[in-house]
Structures are given as C-alpha cells and as structure tokens.
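pasting Cytochrome c peroxidase for the record, 594 residues
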Amino acid sequence: MKLKYFIFSLTLLTFFFSGCQDRAFEKNIKQELLIDLTKLKNEIILLQEKIAADSSQKEVLEQFKKTRLQYKRIEWAIEYFVPETARFMNGPALDEMELEENKFFVPNGFQVIEEHIYPEYDFKNKKEIIRELDILLSNTKQVETTFGAITISDDYVLDALQQNVHRILTLGITGFDSPILNSSIPEARQSLSVIPELLLIIQPNSKILDDVKQIAAKAKEYCDSNPNFNTFNRVVFITEYLNPLSQKLNLFQKEEKIPAVERNRPLKATAATLFDENAFDVNGFVASNEYRYSDEKAILGEKLFYDKSLSKDGNRSCASCHNPEIAFTDGLKTNVSLKGKNLNRNTPTLTYASFQNAQFWDMRQLDLEKQSVDVIENKDEMHGSLVAIHSKISSDREYIQLFQKAYPKSDKTEAWQIQNAISSYVRSLNSFDSRFDSYMRGNKNSINAEEIQGMNLFMGKAKCATCHFTPLFNGTVPPNFAKTEHEVVGTPEDASGKRLSEDRGRYIFNQLPQLKGAFKTPTLRNVAVTAPYMHNGAFATLEEVVEFYDLGGGTGLGLSVENQTLPTDKLNLTAAEKKALVAFMKTLTDKRYN
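structre below
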C-alpha cells in the first residue's frame, strides 16, 4: 500500500510540476510584446553606437532599417494602446498642433531621423541624431511601462490587428511613414508576419488560422518578389492579400466568439474590409447622441436644404450654392455674395462631408451642425437668422409634422433641430457606389488597365494617398479616421502660377506660423464633376492640378512657401502616368453623377 501511495504521489507531483512548467513557458501576448520591445531598445542603442562611431552612411542606413523593422513587429500594439506616444515615435516629421492652446510640439521619431540620414548623411548632425535616438529610446521605455501595466485582452488584440491591416493598406504601402527612404514594402511584409503568430497564441486550434497563415505567407512572398516602391502593384496586393486577410480576421473573431470593440468612430469595428458597402458610420463625428442620423431627419433636412426662406431676402437656399447635379458644388471658381461680389473661396462638395471632423476650407467649425448655422447666418451667403427661421417653422403645419416624425421624443420644435436636420441630409450624401468601389468589392470589369495603373500611381509614385487617404480620399487619417488634416501646398492665385494666393487659411483663426496658407484636405470622391479645384478655384481641370503637384506645389512653381508641408521635390511623372492618374480619379464618381 505504501509503495502504491508513493507511486501515486510521485505521479501527482510530476504532473503538477510539469503543468506549472508548461504554464510558465506558455506564450502570452503581453510577454511577446515586452520581449520585442527589449529587442527594439537594443536596435536603437546599436544605431546610436554607429552614429557615435562615425560609421558610413551605408552602415547607418542598414541599422536604421533593422530598427524600423523591429518597430514594425509591434507597431500594431503601440499605435493602438499608446497612440499619443506612437505619434512621437513614427509620426510625420511635421509640427504637432494643439490649436485649443495655440501651441505646437516639434516632431520626433523615425521620420525625423530618416531626414537626417537620407538621402544625404551629414556627420555634423551627429549630436542631433543621437538626441533624437535618446528621445526614441525614452518613448520605447514609456511604452514598455504601459504594456506592463495594462490588460491586453483578445478583443482588443483582434481590433488592433484589424486596424493594423488597414494601416498597412492606407499608410504603409503608400509611403506615408517612410516618405524619403521608401522602405514601405519590406516593412509591410514585417507587419504582416506577426499576425498569424498572435492568432496562434489566442487560439491555436482555430479553423481559420491555416487560412491566415497561407495568406500572410503569400503576401510576404509577394513583397519579397516586388520590393521596388514605385513599381509595386498595390491593387494586386490589396485585392489578393490585404482584403482577404482582413476578412479572415473578421471571420476568426466571429468563429471564436470574440466581441467587437465598441467605439464611436467613422469606421465600424464590424467592417470586414475598408471597402465594404457599409463600412463607415455617418455618426462617427456627431457631437452627441441626440444628433445621430435617421432617415426621418434626412427627409426633413432635405426640405430645409431647398427652402429659400432660410435666407434673409428669400432668394437663396442651401441648394443655390450646392447644386445636387454637380455633386453639391456650384461650378464656379468662387461663389458670389448676396450683393453679387465675388467671394474668396470655392464651394466644396457636400458629398462625404460627414467623414471629416472639421468643416470649411479653413476648418473653423468642427461639425456639420455648426457649419450649417455658420452659412445661414453669414451676411454674404444667406444672411438669415436661426431665431427667425425657428419662429416661422414652428407655425408651419407641414414642417411641424416632419419635425414630429424626426424628433418624436420632443414636445416642440427647437432651433438645434433645424441645424441637425440639415446636417442629417448632408450625412445622407455618401453612396460609396463608384466604379472604384465596385472593383474593390470584386467586380474586376469595372476598372480598366489604365485606371488600375492610375490607382497604383495614386497610392505609390505620385504620393497622392499620403494626404488623400484611401478609401475616403480626404484628409481624415486612417486607420482610426478620428482626425482630419490640413496641408500647405502653396496654391497660386490662378493657373498662371505667378503669385501665391494671399488667403491665409487656418492662420486667420489660429495664428501659428505653420498654419499660414493651410487648408483642409478635401475628398477626391466625385472630383471629376466638382471643378474648378483648390480653395480658390485656381485650376480648371484635373490635368492642371496633377501638373501642379508633379512640379512640387507652390515651391516647385518658384513661389516662396516657407512652411509648405507638401514635398517640394518633383514627382517626375510621365505624360502617360499623368493621364492614368486623372483616369483613376474619374473612377471615384458616384453612379448618380455619371
């Protein structure tokens, strides 16, 4: 009996310690992240040592690339869990604005270092580069501390991985975060490689995991076979690898019953790809829940939109300047005031305006509700009064019925509802049914070879997509789509290019020197029917616009634009490439405008 008891006890102890050992070595996502962060710190230190030792540019560049590749392994988590720090690790080499406090922060991180070491490496900048690397190392340690303290649950991991696929598509392969070195393709490969590793940790027995492994492996092979930034076929990469991978991640989440992360953003957490018909939510930028979209509100808003009594003299409605036949623009270089005087700015399209968190060219209003009342009460545009409009509508039987349907919980018509109804109509003007959309959803006959070439140029060599982000093609930054950007491109007064536009743009309301001549990056959806172009209507055709950017913006024209954010070097597009680029932009036209 004693022998049997001893053998049983020994077996139990062996099982217990074996189980503990298994658990001790069991892979954990947080542990993997902390290991990768340690590796990143080591790579940064090695880069510092090469700089300090006056190593050759070739050696420095090789180490810089290795360091960036290590960062790309954990970018999915850094961008998701600590975005404020991520901005100063791999954000654009441009000042970060805090407009509420009227101040700015100088940029730090990989893109700043990249400018120091490529294409020219000046050894005189050694101290500055080492200082930048110290900041990068400090930020990495800060991320390490954060990761050690937070809970990293499966739902957040899946959401972060899905966003990272979107990041690769919209920012990675476009060169957004490697604007000079153009190391985007090997970095995209690295970012993708980590996805199956993480899913294996979450659920090693998943039926979907093998599919994910296969797609990721083929995507890596494609990157290896096509490393050249300018010739890389992004259309193939997106449709054959990134979209299928995004769909598989979505399916993995459903199969494993991992809940979607709830968030109030334009891009729905449940979207399988960026190009799904209902991927975007028009409520992403509403100010509060009572402003949320409904069809009943849009119907009311449409009536208000065409009602000329909203203007002081009863001769102008919203539709007077936003003609629905030409994608809610007016076809004029700039509109005219009620007294017939030319205004300073071009009338922008209202289509897809709901997917921006700043309205007007100068971005002075943050939402469509404030935008609508700004126009109605502007003395040059409509010169109306919201108080007077509210008083009139409150006694109109037809309007009362429409308001009751739109706002059934409200006992009476309120002024804010007028703004919200008009804005709701504007929020309805997003079709996502262009030939481009059809192609991205699988209809390979909707776009021809020249247009496909144009899309590859748009997202690659021509660098259009580094400001007009896919798939909204405006300045709302993916993959969170939470912030809309401005640019300083040096727009001339007219197509002659002889004088810089005198319009100060955002600087009028926020007097920071970086904002002189800064304007919102508008959507290029329906751009074929919204001529003329730029904030002042300077260019009559898309061909003129492409030529302007090919030359390097205002600086390329020989104008003095000290704070230009657009790269000033020439794109060197051929005549055929320019033609293809214009052809692609024409595929962004919604069905109703064709």
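The two ends are 90 Å apart (CA to CA).
Residues 57-81 form the longest helix (25 residues).
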